[in-house]
Amino acid sequence: MKKGDKVRFLNAVGGGTITHIEGSTVYVEDEDGFEIPTPANEVVVINETPSAPTNQAARTYFSEAKAEPVKEVVTTIRETESGIQSKDTPHIVLSFLKADRGNSGDLELYVVNDSPLYAYFSIGQISEDGKKAEPIYRKELIAHEKAYIGKYNPQRIDNRLWQCQAILFHPTATYKPYDPINRDIRIKSTRFFKNNSFVENDYFDEKAVSYDVTSDELEAQIERLTEHDMHSILSEKEQKNQPKVSKRSINDLLEVDLHIEQIIDSTAGMSNGEIIQVQLARFEHVMQENADRHGQRIVFIHGVGNGRLKTEVTKLLDRKYKKAQYQDASFKEYGYGATLVIIK
């Protein structure tokens, strides 16, 4: 095989033109302009072209690797003449497993489609300015399929933001329609060097670090809300006088308690989704109020709980306040229940 050859995928629909080759991995550009890293033994040449010199820089997302056999996903799909009958809901997971070879720290990456539906799935790496996405991987996943993506050194993509997208469907039966999945996941290499990060899971015999790509109903509801919606909910539920937000200034340190009882008098009649919206609205109000105070340190106390509020605060920081720095606040003073933000 050589650059310019037309090839067809053996284990997936489609094909394209080879742009360059690294070891036993060929990079295939499909008709949509996506470049897909593929093991050479999984493509077949259908139209050869003359060899030509290339100066294109080799991509370095994934190094050469071969997938090892893994445990099958055990889930049952029940189909009838009227379509799919299943209590399963769409669930797509990215799983990182330790590579077997030596102590290099390399990881093997898989995507798991643990749902009764097929999925057009893709990963794109978001540029630092957030204006572009560079394709990394794309595949049509069948129902309950695990697909090997590649092997990589975690430090090569440390703190990179991946956009994961999926369109769910079934090719032969009627099915319940779901909104397209669109999730941004930030990969931080430090997670892979903690002993307790790799845990038992339902998909592999080995322990894995997993990221849930599938938005649950609460997260999807929050993402659909506009800033106006959040402030409307806050104004309806908030007491008329000054909100009870605990703040103290100690050597330019501002402390903001996001516990719901510190923001409003009563949560009667409010859903969990409305409660977290009020908390996030308070967080955004404080961030906007201090936007021009460079060097201002703010401790947001969110508590531990199930980790949902901390996760949503982090997502907002990554998406809307990229210039701000953040980290876990002092463990001695706050335990695991607070995040320190520094305005830049």
Overview of this protein structure:
This protein is α+β, with helices and mostly antiparallel strands. It is 16% helix and 33% strand. The protein contains five helices and 20 strands. The strands form five sheets. A five-stranded antiparallel β-sheet has the order 4-3-2-1-5, with no helix packed on it. Strand 1 and strand 2 (15-22) form a beta hairpin. Helix 2 crosses helix 3 and helix 3 (272-289) packs across helix 4 (308-320). The radius of gyration is 24 Å and the shape is elongated. It starts with 5 loop residues before the first strand and ends with a strand. Mean pLDDT is 75; it is low at 48-87, 217-227 and 239-251.
